[in-house]
Fold:
Amino acid sequence: GESVGLHLPTLSVQEGDNSIINCAYSNSASDYFIWYKQESGKGPQFIIDIRSNMDKRQGQRVTVLLNKTVKHLSLQIAATQPGDSAVYFCAENMGTSYDKVIFGPGTSLSVIP
Amino acid sequence: EAQVTQNPRYLITVTGKKLTVTCSQNMNHEYMSWYRQDPGLGLRQIYYSMNVEVTDKGDVPEGYKVSRKEKRNFPLILESPSPNQTSLYFCASSFSGAAFDTQYFGPGTRLTVL
Structure:
């Protein structure tokens, strides 16, 4: 959801462990959610998305969970690898009457070899 | 290769000197958008375009202009840059609107206004 902060949340995990990155969204009318990964010096890259008629969606090593009751989104990365080190952003569409998305502040994931 | 390209990648300029950052996509996308990214603030939308000759303000449009004369190009214009426009800028595109479809981002343009 839309939030402003001075400090980027960070998460450090051991290589091979599972990672869970959380995101609280702000608008109960939002019906499309996306997770992006941004590596240092690059633009955000799509990881996985989910629509509000689902509560779980799986990709390759990634799973997104959506809890509409508490407006919470999570990204789970299985068997985290050094290449997963990046900043992860969630985004919500604020409802289909608005043609834009709002990005969260991001979470920095560091993988310890 | 399907991609969004931006030029220049890095730019240092002085206050008041007009500049244009170009953006081009080769995926025949309808929707294009500009964002700025600042530490701790995430990505904030500047302007977006649903199609040729259709543009709309995002959350932080002040001090910026855009145009969409062709489907593939969406330049960002700073008529009179100021130091508070020092930022990392991303162009993005998608098949349909951002509310429905994932966006593909360019590599970014780091702008410094002295």
Summary: The longest strand of chain A covers residues 32-38. Chain A touches chain B at residues 4-8, 32, 34, 36, 41-46, 49, 89, 93-96, 98-101, 103-106 (CB under 8 Å).
